[in-house]
Write a structure and sequence with these properties.
- The protein has helices at about 20-30, 50-60, 85-90, 100-105, 125-130, 165-175, 190-200, 230-245, 260-270, 305-315, 335-340, 370-380, 390-395, 400-405; strands spanning about 5, 15, 40, 65, 70-75, 80-85, 105-110, 135-140, 145, 155, 180-185, 205, 210-215, 225, 250, 270-275, 280-285, 295, 320-325, 345, 350-355, 365, 385-390, 410-415.
- The chain is of the alpha/beta class and about 425 residues long.
- The protein has a four-stranded mixed beta sheet, covered by helices on one side. It has a four-stranded mixed beta sheet with strand order 2-15-17-16, covered by helices on one side.
- Helix 1 (about 20-30) runs parallel beside helix 7, helix 5 packs parallel to helix 6 (about 165-175) and helix 6 runs parallel beside helix 7.
- It starts with a strand and ends in a 9-residue tail after the last strand.
- The chain binds uridine-diphosphate-2(N-acetylglucosaminyl) butyric acid.
- The site of uridine-diphosphate-2(N-acetylglucosaminyl) butyric acid has 24 residues, from helix 1, helix 5, helix 6 and helix 12.
């Protein structure tokens, strides 16, 4: 299992390019299932989750050709519209094949995901929405077996905002008969990027980016070329690393509009932010001020940035309160941060962080993707050496994180050790 070895204490400085967004790439790769013509994608990040999804799609008969950050997908015929438990347990986002398979093939067999490290994460709203469109879905030996001759448009209200739920239903609706209205839809920029790609394929979608999305079904979609948006969570993570180390960093290739809530919190933490087109510069003005925050669906503060801010708050001035409202178990980094000297109390979904003057390097264990990012930031601040174990979690969603951090002056390297890579 690979580890990151970090010697903390260096302020990050320099310029770095943001990669393509994992959470946009995953649904958009699945959109290739909707057309028999090629889908040509640019700016696809090299990540474990992307590789996993390409294997799943290949197994269905999709021809996937990857060159650098470009992927060409040809789903001329879908031989096997199934995603087995072995894949779904490795990566929950594989459920994103359900909507497109059902729309294109009239049949799909996708393993029902279980709970995961950060929470229960049911998929009832995906199922309810597809049923409202006329699908018959049975759970057979742990698999969702879904059938529909042709899906019908429907008016669907989702009582919880769900990102992949919105994406799955949007992909099902583009080939349905008639109009689908998704109410209380997710407004995340990744949903908008998927809608952009689907429109390029000939879909008729409006309202993406608001909580009311309207989709007028068409009978067939064509091939298209699409560039995946930049990863706002990678960008946010690098900015927090810059702020926590009292650095001065510039990110390129990112639209600041998708990061407003995060940039607001960074300014509250005492950072100066300068914007130019596709560029964000962060300069820390002095000591870190702690920032309280509450996670919520977009455009509010993202749950995927909570662990990183928690690491920064651990050494900031003052006491802060972090409230997690999206997932029930997303505080697993807390115990590891405590081992580095942080003073954090957890009561239910609220963490109270009393800033300490310094963290000490230690061996800590990554438990999920964003918790790992928080521990890496803690390592960059801490005195002495921090070893972040089980870095495969980080590799699921950050492209060459150690290379980017090293380019910004961090003392970090990957120690590769042979052995079980594990999955979550
Ligand atoms: N929920 C339900 N029923 C459903 C679906 C969701 O109750 O049918 C609940 C969940 O349990 C959760 C809340 O709704 O409490 C929101 O979950 P959502 O469905 O929005 O999460 P997701 O679509 O499974 C995506 C991202 C996550 C990100 C969340 C929230 C992808 C592939 N994943 O997950 O990303 O945290 O939205 O923004 O887009 C990550 O990248 O580290 C990551 C976990």
């Amino acid at each position: 299992m690979d580890q990151f070895v970090i010697t903390g204490g260096r302020p990050l400085q320099g310029v770095v390019q943001v990669s393509g967004a994992k959470n946009a790439a995953l649904p958009i790769l699945c959109a290739s299932l909707l057309s028999s013509e090629p889908l040509h994608l640019l700016n696809v990040p090299h990540l474990r989750d992307v590789q996993t999804l390409l294997k799943i799609l290949s197994g269905m008969g999709v021809q996937c050709d990857q060159t650098g950050n470009e992927v060409m997908l040809r789903a001329e015929r879908i031989e096997s519209p199934t995603a087995s438990y072995d894949w779904v347990k490795t990566m929950r986002a594989s459920i994103l094949v359900l909507g497109p398979l059902l729309a294109r093939c009239g049949y799909a067999k996708v393993s029902l995901p279980g709970g995961c490290a950060i929470g229960e994460r049911p998929v009832d709203l995906h199922i309810k929405g597809l049923e409202a469109m006329g699908a018959v879905i049975e759970i057979v030996h742990g698999d969702m077996v879904a059938r529909a001759d042709r899906l019908n448009g429907a008016h669907i209200f989702m009582d919880t905002v769900t990102v992949t739920g919105t994406e799955n239903l949007m992909m099902a609706a583009v080939l349905a008969e008639g109009t689908t209205i998704l109410e209380n839809a997710a407004r995340e920029p990744e949903v908008v990027d998927l809608a952009r790609c689907l429109r390029a394929m000939g879909a008729q979608i409006s309202g993406d980016g608001t909580d009311l999305i309207t989709i007028q079904g068409v009978s067939v979609l064509r091939g298209a070329k699409h560039t995946i948006m930049a990863d706002r969570i990678e960008a946010g993570t690098l900015l927090v690393a810059g702020a926590a180390t009292r650095g001065d960093i510039t990110l390129q290739g990112i639209d600041a509009g998708v990061l407003e809530s995060v940039l607001d919190k960074l300014m509250e933490a005492n950072a100066r932010i300068d914007l130019a087109p596709q560029q964000i510069r962060l300069t820390m003005l002095g000591e870190n001020h702690g920032v309280s925050l509450r996670t919520s669906p977009y455009p509010a503060f993202p749950t995927d940035m909570q662990a990183q801010f928690m690491a920064m708050n651990a050494v900031a001035r003052g006491t802060t309160v972090v409230t997690e409202t999206i997932f029930e178990n997303r505080f697993m980094h807390v115990q590891e941060l405590r081992r580095m000297g942080a003073n954090i109390e957890v009561e239910g979904n609220v963490a109270i962080i009393r800033g300490v003057s310094r963290l000490e390097g230690a061996t800590v264990m990554a438990t999920d993707l964003r918790a790992s990012a928080g521990l890496v930031i803690a390592g960059l601040i801490a005195e002495g050496e921090t070893v972040v174990d089980r870095i495969y979690h980080l590799d699921r969603g950050y492209e060459q994180m150690e290379v980017k951090l090293a380019a910004l002056g961090a003392n970090v390297f990957r120690r590769s050790r042979k052995g079980d890579h594990g999955t979550v």
